[in-house]
Amino acid sequence: MTKCQACGKEETAQEICSVCGKTYCSDHISRQNHNCFVDPRGVNMGGRTRVYTGTYGTGAAKETNPPKADYYDTDQFEQRHGYTAARSPPLWKKILNSPTYIIIIICVILQLVALGAIIFNNSALAFIYNSLVLYSSFDYILARPWTLITHMFLHSPTDIFHLLFNMITLYFFGRYLEQIIGKKSFVLMYLVSGVVAAIGFILLEGNTGVGLVGASGAIYGVLGAVTVINPNLKVFVYFIPMKIKYMIVIFVIISLMFMGDGSMIAHAAHLSGIVIGLAFGYYYRNKLREKTRQGYY
């Protein structure tokens, strides 16, 4: 004997609903005549909660809030029908799945190392930090080639705004760009921009042995690429709204005007980062256009 899940009627054989998988008598087997789970993919985006999208009762007695016992579990529905409803991944997965977030985390950790070396006068932490700094000397680079990469994850330990400004800029434009060109391409472009910015700094400023730290060169590369891909993107420069193509022009003028002024700002690295970023932007823009053309055929 089987029991109808709607009216409780017991019969020797009853049909099973192909949607919710429960047994019903001939009067209630129609989905219009019993509570039925319709579309879990459209209503359960946040986790494995019990959800319901149908109605309870028939005709004028229909209700939009059925009894709690009539809710169906999405787990059971997915196992029965062979697909998984879309869900938002947990925060830690979002972070680990984004190169931008990972770069920000590394920069913050190394900033804490630098601060720890100063606050606690820790020689071990100071050694770690100093071994990652790039000095504008080709002899030094040949001896410590890894500093071409590591310097772009360091920032001045005494200037917290250096880190803050760079990370805020990277947060907005880095995530934007990685969604357009892809994560692997973004990582490649970011690292190459940082390396080219460092080499450009040495070539333009001279083989002086001055220390170089900061993600600015790589981030200026990101800005350059975004400028080519979406030149009319609205941005705010010191709370002044403008298109990103005008912002880049301003940055280039500033870098050219103050290059070699002896300040602590690596204008040559900024300019080199913009140039390589523009080149990457042209490459990826053409690549995206080619994919779009192929999509029409």
From TrEMBL:
<keyword id="KW-1133">Transmembrane helix</keyword>
<feature type="transmembrane region" description="Helical">
    <location>
        <begin position="185"/>
        <end position="204"/>
    </location>
</feature>
<dbReference type="InterPro" id="IPR022764">
    <property type="entry name" value="Peptidase_S54_rhomboid_dom"/>
</dbReference>
<keyword id="KW-0862">Zinc</keyword>
<dbReference type="InterPro" id="IPR035896">
    <property type="entry name" value="AN1-like_Znf"/>
</dbReference>
<dbReference type="InterPro" id="IPR000058">
    <property type="entry name" value="Znf_AN1"/>
</dbReference>
<keyword id="KW-0645">Protease</keyword>
<dbReference type="Pfam" id="PF01694">
    <property type="entry name" value="Rhomboid"/>
</dbReference>
<feature type="transmembrane region" description="Helical">
    <location>
        <begin position="236"/>
        <end position="258"/>
    </location>
</feature>
<feature type="transmembrane region" description="Helical">
    <location>
        <begin position="149"/>
        <end position="173"/>
    </location>
</feature>
<keyword id="KW-0479">Metal-binding</keyword>
<keyword id="KW-0378">Hydrolase</keyword>
<feature type="domain" description="AN1-type">
    <location>
        <begin position="4"/>
        <end position="41"/>
    </location>
</feature>
<feature type="transmembrane region" description="Helical">
    <location>
        <begin position="210"/>
        <end position="229"/>
    </location>
</feature>
<dbReference type="GO" id="GO:0016020">
    <property type="term" value="C:membrane"/>
</dbReference>
<feature type="transmembrane region" description="Helical">
    <location>
        <begin position="264"/>
        <end position="284"/>
    </location>
</feature>
<keyword id="KW-0863">Zinc-finger</keyword>
<dbReference type="GO" id="GO:0008270">
    <property type="term" value="F:zinc ion binding"/>
</dbReference>
<feature type="transmembrane region" description="Helical">
    <location>
        <begin position="101"/>
        <end position="129"/>
    </location>
</feature>
<dbReference type="InterPro" id="IPR035952">
    <property type="entry name" value="Rhomboid-like_sf"/>
</dbReference>
<keyword id="KW-0812">Transmembrane</keyword>
<keyword id="KW-0472">Membrane</keyword>
<dbReference type="InterPro" id="IPR050925">
    <property type="entry name" value="Rhomboid_protease_S54"/>
</dbReference>
<dbReference type="GO" id="GO:0004252">
    <property type="term" value="F:serine-type endopeptidase activity"/>
</dbReference>
<dbReference type="GO" id="GO:0006508">
    <property type="term" value="P:proteolysis"/>
</dbReference>
<comment type="similarity">
    <text>Belongs to the peptidase S54 family.</text>
</comment>
<protein>
    <submittedName>
        <fullName>Rhomboid protease GlpG</fullName>
        <ecNumber>3.4.21.105</ecNumber>
    </submittedName>
</protein>
